[in-house]
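Before we proceed, please read the two lines closing this message. Report back on whether the structure tokens fit the sequence:
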Amino acid sequence: MLTVISYFGFLLVLLIFTSVLFIGLSSIQLI
């Protein structure tokens, strides 16, 4: 059960990191 929680936590962090990176690249292109 603990491995499932850590796995979903890792996916959540990866998703947040990807979205933040995508927003950063988009803002750079807008400038």
In short: The radius of gyration is 14 Å. The chain has one domain: 1-30. The helical segments are 2-30.
